[in-house]
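I hope you will forgive my troubling you with a question about protein structure. The matter concerns a single protein, recorded as an amino acid sequence and a row of backbone structure tokens. Please examine both parts with care and let me know of anything in them that strikes you as inconsistent. Here, with my thanks, is the record as I have it:
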Amino acid sequence: MAWQATLRVALAAAIVSVVGGAAQAGPTLDQIRQRGTLACGVHTGNAGMSLPDSRGVYQGLEVDLCRGLAAAIFNDVNKVRFIPLTASTRFTALGSGEIDVLIRGSTQTMLRDTTLGLRHAVTYFYDGHGFMVRNTLNVRQVRELNGATICLIQGTTNEQVTADYFRSINVPFTPVVFERTDQAAGALQAGRCDAFGTDASQLAATRSTMQTPGDWTILPERFSKEPYGAYIRRGDDEWFDLVRWYTYALIEAEELGVTSQNAEEMRRTSTNANVRRLLGATPELGQSIKLDPAWAYNAVRAIGNYGELYERTMGERTPVGLARAQNNLWTNGGLMYALPMR
């Protein structure tokens, strides 16, 4: 029948369109390849996450995530340009195209996800809002900060979380707002503020840079959920897939016991189908996101699996000194869980 023939032609055209489209990389990846570098938005200075060392070289969990992404694309961790951004400029920089991806302590919230023209790709760090005080205040609970002056960072969820909490318990406080974390830390140490309110990881990072870290206490209460994720612009599904599955690959590597030290041997000798797919011994995962079959192997070899990355930058043996807690694997009581890579 004529309508059946027409339907067959339409279906065939649709299949050709889908297959043909799958063969093309998204515009962001094309631009990155043409440029020869990844432009990655990072924090202006946050120990453990993104902080220049004495040579001016950025170090930390978030900057290494940028380096690993460059390794996945180019097999070269040096093909990345770090763009330091404040909390108030980060989303504008991403939306304008100044950066390709934002990996800078940015919490996923509903309004950010639905009103900014951006997409949260995947969570790479779970945090929560807290407060740090000087030991001499003898404060053990946040509600004891009645009438306190509290340092906050402009353009963060922490401003709203702090205001919401103190309003809920009918306790007054005075906010002192700064653009950058180092400014707030300086004001806190100088005595301009009684407390600093921000995410616990940033509190630990700030304390590690104080003249006498032991003089400060991070109060144990947490007042929010702060899932940090990589943000990209909306409208490029291929780039979304790449950033998302790159992060999952680091978590999957830890689940499978693949490390920066054994990745080469495991790629050559493992008979585990999941390991072989992840490390590119079989090509299908790389093909699906328009990368070399060895994309995940290159990333893990360069920066390690998620556990290696965390312990090297944020772990208990670092100056920041944060236990894995919710950032542990799901098999160890945490929230880190890679979706099936097959």
